[in-house]
UniProtKB/TrEMBL annotation:
<feature type="binding site" description="in other chain">
    <location>
        <position position="28"/>
    </location>
    <ligand>
        <name>phosphate</name>
    </ligand>
</feature>
<dbReference type="GO" id="GO:0042278">
    <property type="term" value="P:purine nucleoside metabolic process"/>
</dbReference>
<feature type="active site" description="Proton donor">
    <location>
        <position position="208"/>
    </location>
</feature>
<dbReference type="GO" id="GO:0006218">
    <property type="term" value="P:uridine catabolic process"/>
</dbReference>
<comment type="subunit">
    <text>Homohexamer; trimer of homodimers.</text>
</comment>
<feature type="binding site">
    <location>
        <position position="8"/>
    </location>
    <ligand>
        <name>a purine D-ribonucleoside</name>
    </ligand>
</feature>
<dbReference type="GO" id="GO:0004731">
    <property type="term" value="F:purine-nucleoside phosphorylase activity"/>
</dbReference>
<feature type="binding site">
    <location>
        <position position="47"/>
    </location>
    <ligand>
        <name>phosphate</name>
    </ligand>
</feature>
<feature type="site" description="Important for catalytic activity">
    <location>
        <position position="221"/>
    </location>
</feature>
<dbReference type="Pfam" id="PF01048">
    <property type="entry name" value="PNP_UDP_1"/>
</dbReference>
<dbReference type="InterPro" id="IPR018016">
    <property type="entry name" value="Nucleoside_phosphorylase_CS"/>
</dbReference>
<protein>
    <recommendedName>
        <fullName>Purine nucleoside phosphorylase DeoD-type</fullName>
        <ecNumber>2.4.2.1</ecNumber>
    </recommendedName>
</protein>
<keyword id="KW-0808">Transferase</keyword>
<feature type="binding site" description="in other chain">
    <location>
        <begin position="183"/>
        <end position="185"/>
    </location>
    <ligand>
        <name>a purine D-ribonucleoside</name>
    </ligand>
</feature>
<dbReference type="InterPro" id="IPR000845">
    <property type="entry name" value="Nucleoside_phosphorylase_d"/>
</dbReference>
<comment type="function">
    <text>Catalyzes the reversible phosphorolytic breakdown of the N-glycosidic bond in the beta-(deoxy)ribonucleoside molecules, with the formation of the corresponding free purine bases and pentose-1-phosphate.</text>
</comment>
<keyword id="KW-0328">Glycosyltransferase</keyword>
Length: 235
């Protein structure tokens, strides 16, 4: 039997921790591992999607990129849950703010993830599934943020399949329902976790304002999410 269970991940059995932090950008995964983890080891680089395992305060943690969009994160998280024995995945990403009260660099925690994706079709459910975070992870994240003095906003986010939407009114519609911010991965992560009986949480740093002019550069997105990381590492 092969020691590498999938074609998308070069890690051998036992090389990935039970807890995985998952940014979208593989270079952000590299930065996180080299900045925060002790003795990080590169365990996979298939398709340049870097994954590292190291320790933080004596606890083994892995950090691995998940790519852009639900098809990408859906593959990686499914394989981590089912083939590598991962118990919890914490997405740490960026998002565009939809509400005026959500500011640049704010940390948003996705209690639920609305979506325009058809990802749930595969489950054959007789209705609409509501993808939600693991409450234990969510509560601990909020408590950790409070202890660290970091302001977080908790609520509904949108996981969209579409970055350049031909419908120019779509953001207004989600905004009118109180959705805090838009990203592209959390709903698939939450559904994969639910189907596998595992835990998941999505934390986001606001990188741009959908109804404003401010936005972070690509380098700032890669390097500037320290507050969110300090929360995630304690989970």
């Amino acid at each position: 039997m092969s020691m590498t269970p999938t074609a998308h991940n070069g890690a051998k059995q036992g090389e990935i921790a039970k807890t995985v932090l998952m940014p979208g950008d593989p270079l952000r995964a590299k930065y996180i591992a080299e900045t925060y983890l002790e003795n990080p080891v590169l365990v996979t680089s298939v398709r340049n999607m870097f994954g590292y395992t190291g320790t933080y305060k004596g606890r083994e943690i892995s950090v691995m990129g998940g790519g852009m969009g639900m098809p990408s994160v859906g593959i990686y998280t499914y394989e981590l849950f089912h083939f590598y024995g991962v118990e919890q995945i914490i997405r740490i990403g960026s998002a565009g703010a939809l509400q005026d009260g959500v500011k640049l660099m704010d940390v948003v925690i996705g209690m639920g993830a609305c979506t325009d994706s058809n990802y749930a079709y595969q489950y054959g459910l007789p209705g609409t599934f509501a993808p939600i975070a693991d409450y234990g992870l969510l509560a601990k994240a909020v408590d950790t943020a409070n202890a660290q003095g970091t302001h977080v906003v908790v609520g509904n986010i949108l996981s969209s399949d579409i970055f350049y939407n031909a419908d120019t009114t779509v953001n207004d519609k989600w905004r009118s329902m109180g959705v805090l911010a838009v990203e592209m991965e959390a709903a698939a992560l939450y559904m994969n976790a639910a189907a596998a009986g595992k835990k998941a949480l999505c934390m986001l740093t606001i990188s741009d304002l959908i109804y404003g002019e401010e936005k972070l550069s690509a380098e700032e997105r890669q390097l500037g999410f320290g507050k969110m990381m300090e929360i995630a590492l304690e989970l």
